[in-house]
Design brief:
Keywords: Repeat. This protein is mostly helical. α3 packs antiparallel against α4, α3 runs parallel beside α5 and α30 packs parallel to α32. Among the domains are: 139 residues, no CATH class; 169 residues, Serine Threonine Protein Phosphatase 5, Tetratricopeptide repeat (Alpha Horseshoe), CATH 1.25.40; 118 residues, no CATH class. The protein is built from 33 helices and no strands.
Length: 660
């Protein structure tokens, strides 16, 4: 589509540029050069206005643009109605930048004629803000209006001119409606945006302390605007008390619905459910899917799939098909309950797998048996094993949910695909033979075949799945895992994703580390040089994509070089950590000492230099019992009996008494 921002650029440039823009970008549907000469400027403008209206009604935005360029080329001054048509065109194209350029031109024309923006002009501008996808440009426009200034994109001599209209209740309603569309709220996680919306709400409430003439729509919008910010908010608490105490405020289904939405968003789910029960008791229906969806999202994010399932079964039947009137962008937002339930299952499995991976890492580092924490004892999935997973009630319920999704949809949508892929990748951690990773990759190809592009997050989970999969538990399979993760990395690049993200490279580095043998496997020796080449390749990729190492990635490199006995590279990481300003913490020292204990020279270095350096760090690093045990291994390796005796005496003095 012809970009509307070219409209004014072409209109106020040279005659040659106008003709070139028109020739290259506009469909010439009518030749107005054949129109009889009309003497009156007003009549000429009226003819263009009527044509522009007709083109707008048929969504022929390029023809609308052509008419305006023609008008300016003939030095006909546009009327306010013509500018209104242009603003409506911007609304259809969701083009806020061009709307602001047009708005600026309206004020420029005030110096040439009596034309002046009206409340209707601002209404058209706010309509464009409502459909705009630009969160902070929308905020800029609305904050300018609230502050009594004319909104412009670029600074100019009239940029700080005072607003010539008064903000009434209708205008405020439009402002909050524009900021709280479903599209704006669910397409960002930036807390600054939600905070700004909350602060605008507080400005409005402070200017209307008595809630004078508040309509149902005003109450709905102010609850929604305050509810966007997930943190505590005094004004929201005040409003909550007011609407439940004011006799003149009727708790309509619409207000109940918005209140349930806001309470759920603020994680006040008990209060949300209480009001949901009140709504059903009073009116026996829920006017919108959205509040129940957000309530379910709270439990889905926690992985509490049983509660999410219970709430759907309890409340879904009360949702009416006559949902409240919404903008086009709100209507396009899908509040799919099967999706949110799938998410709850995936998140529940993700929590369990994350715990197991963390537990395994601790087991490897400390050479201890698996630990079952009190937290995980309460997890209903801690009983899952390779043998019982596919027969478990959890997996059977998941398969039943998938079948229901397939029956109710002609084909999977993007969310269905991604959640199914994630579940498969996580299941691989429990039973890699039943859920091989190549099947997850095939799902991504199937997804692409249906014209749906996987998100960055799904690729990231696929990478992490390879890095942690039991399919690659032996050192001999480590090279294959690296090749597979690099293949996924290249696929992500082919999808056009920006790879300037150290988390992606962190996963590539993780894939180079054997999961069990680490520093001790004899069979790992023949492939050390090949692993080193891959590490070098990944480091080069980091430089090419201008990603920057962080403390975690440097610690991983340290462990990697220890695995392949590249001790000189370990020393480089040691100094690079210091030069990069990162703290060489206890975990860093443990990794260094453990790797060094394989080599006589490096063990000597740890005993003579490294152990004394710990107290010189800022803040100082204090060794624990595990660190002393690692140092004792260094003593044994280099046959340093004197240091061994010193460390043993220190352990006996400081740890024996504490364990009595």
């Amino acid at each position: 589509m012809f970009h509307i921002s070219l409209l004014l650029a072409s209109s106020y440039s040279t005659h040659e540029h106008i003709l070139n823009s028109a020739a290259n970008n506009i469909l010439l549907l009518h030749d107005i050069s054949t129109t009889p000469e009309i003497t009156s400027q007003v009549d000429k403008a009226q003819i263009h206005l009527e044509r522009m209206k007709n083109f707008l009604d048929t969504n022929n935005l390029e023809a609308v643009t052509k008419e305006f360029i023609d008008l300016k080329e003939k030095n006909i001054l546009p009327t306010l109605e013509i500018y209104h048509i242009l603003l409506q065109m911007c609304h259809k194209a969701s083009d806020l930048n061009s709307a602001l350029e047009i708005f600026s031109q309206i004020y420029n024309d005030t110096t040439k004629s009596s034309i002046s923006p009206t409340k209707e002009t601002y209404k058209y501008l706010l309509d464009v803000v409502e459909v705009s996808s630009d969160h902070f440009l929308s905020l800029h426009v609305l904050k300018s209006i609230v502050n009594g200034q004319i909104p412009f994109i670029k600074s100019s001599k009239i940029a700080y001119k005072n607003l010539n209209i008064k903000l009434d209740l209708d205008m405020w309603n439009s402002i909050f409606r524009s900021l709280t569309t479903s599209h704006k709220l669910y397409s960002t996680s930036d807390l600054n945006y939600f905070k700004e919306v909350k602060e605008l709400s507080e400005i409005f409430l402070n200017s209307n302390p008595n809630y004078h003439n508040f309509t149902e729509e005003t109450w709905r919008l102010i609850i929604r605007a305050l509810g966007t910010y997930p943190g505590p908010c005094k004004k929201f608490d005040e409003i909550l008390q007011k609407i439940q105490s004011l006799e003149q405020t009727v708790m309509t289904p619409t207000i109940y619905s918005e209140l349930i939405w806001a309470l759920s968003r603020k994680s006040l789910v008990d209060l949300a459910i209480k009001n949901l029960d009140k709504l059903i008791l009073q009116y026996n229906y829920i006017p919108s899917r959205e509040p129940l969806y957000i309530l379910l999202s709270y439990y889905a994010d926690l992985g509490v799939y049983q509660e999410a399932e219970y709430l759907i079964n309890k409340y879904f039947k009360f949702i009416t098909i006559h949902e409240q009137s919404e903008s086009s962008q709100q209507k396009s937002w899908q509040f799919n309950f099967s999706t949110i339930l799938m998410k709850a299952y995936v998140q529940a499995l993700h929590k369990e797998i994350s715990f197991r991976i963390k537990n395994l890492e601790e087991q490897i580092k400390k050479n201890t048996s698996l630990i079952t924490s009190k937290e995980n004892m309460n997890n209903p999935l801690n009983y899952l094993t390779k043998d019982n997973f596919t027969q478990s009630s959890f997996y059977v319920s998941w398969k039943k949910l998938l079948n229901e999704v397939k029956l109710s949809n002609s084909k999977y949508n993007k969310d269905h695909f991604e959640l199914t892929i994630r579940f498969h990748i996580l299941s691989n951690q429990i039973n890699h033979q039943e859920f091989p990773l190549n099947e997850a990759l095939n799902m991504i190809y199937e997804m692409k075949g249906d014209g749906i592009e996987p998100t960055f997050e799904t690729f990231k989970i696929l990478l992490e799945g390879h890095a942690n999969s039991p399919e690659y538990n032996s050192s001999k399979q480590t090279l294959q895992r690296i090749e597979n993760t690099l293949g996924i990395f290249n696929m992500m690049k082919s999808f056009g994703y920006d790879m300037n993200n150290i988390e992606i490279f962190q996963t590539l580095l993780d894939s180079c580390i054997p999961k069990y043998e680490r520093f001790t496997d004899i069979d790992f020796k023949p492939i050390r040089l090949k692993i080193k080449e891959k590490i070098k390749h990944i480091n080069n990729l980091i430089k090419i994509h201008k990603a920057k190492h962080n403390q975690k990635s440097m610690l991983t490199l340290l462990e990697l070089y220890g695995c392949i006995h590249s001790f000189s590279e370990m020393r480089h990481i040691w100094f690079d950590m210091f030069l990069s300003g990162y703290h060489r913490n206890l975990n860093f020292y443990k990794t260094f000492i453990k790797a060094s204990s394989q080599n006589i020279r490096e063990s000597t270095y740890c005993l003579d230099v490294l152990r004394h350096q710990m107290s010189k760090e800022y803040p100082p690093v204090y060794p624990d019992l595990e660190t002393y045990n690692l140092l004792l291994k260094c003593c044994i390796k280099c046959d340093d009996l004197i240091t061994k005796k010193q460390i043993t005496n220190h352990i006996m003095k400081h740890y024996s008494s504490s364990q009595k």
